[in-house]
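Morning!

This is the sequence you dropped in the shared folder:
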Amino acid sequence: MRKKLVAGLLALAMTATVGITAVAATVHYNDSSVTGGSAAWQAWTANWDEIATDYTQVSIAPGEDETELNFAWYSLKTDEEATPVVHFGTSEGKMKTFEGVAGDVDPSLTDNVQYEFNRVKVTGIRPGTTYYYTVEKNGVETEPEVFYARDVEETKILYVGDPQIGASKGQPQNGEALKAESGAANTAARNDGFAWNRTLETAFAQTPDINFVISAGDQVNKTGKPKEEEYAAYLFPKALKTVPVATTIGNHDSLNADYAYHFYNPNPTDNGVTEAGGDYYYSYGDGLFIVLNTNNYNVAEHADTIKEAVESDPNAAWRVVTIHQDIYGSGLDHSDTDGMILRTQLTPVFDSYDIDVVLQGHDHTYSRTKMLYGDGKVHSGYEFRLNEDGSDYDWEHAFNITNGQSIPLAPEDGDEEGAAALAAFQADNNCYTIENTVGNTVVDPKGILYMTANSASGSKYYELIGTQQDYVANRSQNWLPSYSIITMTEDTFQIDTYQILDNGSTEKIDDTFTIVKTK
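The structure's back. Tokens below.
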């Protein structure tokens, strides 16, 4: 379905900027061998064999609030018991020991080599303090890393979308096509891992006081298949060792357990569960953050998660939801088809719980909506289903959950019934009201802001839909990696969005947008 939707536009001749190659057969992407600079790229490729085969990289997720952290990592399974231990303190010589739990990793995901996952919660963290930590891998303590527990009076959040390490497969680089094989032979992961690290280094150099990172999903690419070299490249960057990352389960993450092994999310629920895990939430500074696995289409369960989260922190100044699928986006590949699949159901739920901002991914384009709320009318509900062998989602059809109607999202020529069903589906999704606001600072709005992040690594980009939707305030597709910096205080929520040029400098692609609360 994706190829059908983009084939016509991508067949048009386009002028490629340096390092961003337009390929008619597939999609635009970032060629790291060009944008990275020869010295940095050569160093990365020289170490790729080691990076790609080290499945034991440490991930840090937020804890239940800013006083906690959740650590996770793999260790080889040996005759000795696993040692899920983190040493954490304000100096290398003064660390407290925190113990956790361990369990077996499915060996079919790790080249039939047996690993164990380790999970440890660290508590008692004081914002505004620099810490050091080590972890134990089979009883061997790693070299100390620095962790920055930033002040929370003004919280800085790096918001990124779809690193999707390995998605540049099939693209030309240095005269040959990138491949998505296993281990070090996954040259697409090598390409995208470098670009992902470059984006993080750029963002942290520009904004050194970032408190934490929000990733809107699709950390990796191989849906339902072993992909440890992609996770190794995703987790490798030094920046991810210094702050926590709140990851979202994207469709490429959702269909096996490797995501759940690699990330120890706070307040996990039994709602929205796929093989990768389910919904979770956490508080940080003045915000309550709710992360939904929208690859599970049971909206009643997602509503239960939001209710539980709100009850856990009813006085949070801001309520922020992260989902992968962009129910209000502007990309050609998803926004008017599978991206909006849950729009009719989630919009009234978000309204009822006074959600302020929804952060999205999936569309590999950037967009910012106007302030939106539901139209108060009754609409049908829709979902996706897995294909026959369960290896991926059936991207060709949406299903009406009330009557079971199958809706083709790219009807064949002459399929009048299918075209009518698609038109009715799209019309039913006009379920929103646009709030009348002026300018880029809104005060005490009724509506919700929906953001869609472009690819942070540049592993894959999509075209914008031909006609900008009426709900979109601004959008961009310049075939460059981008990211947003969110600045949150008790009464303001501000977003600035940047793209990274081929020479490594940054420029804004949208005006600063600010929500102000006076009550």
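Headline: The longest helix spans residues 187-206.

More detail when I'm at my desk.
O.
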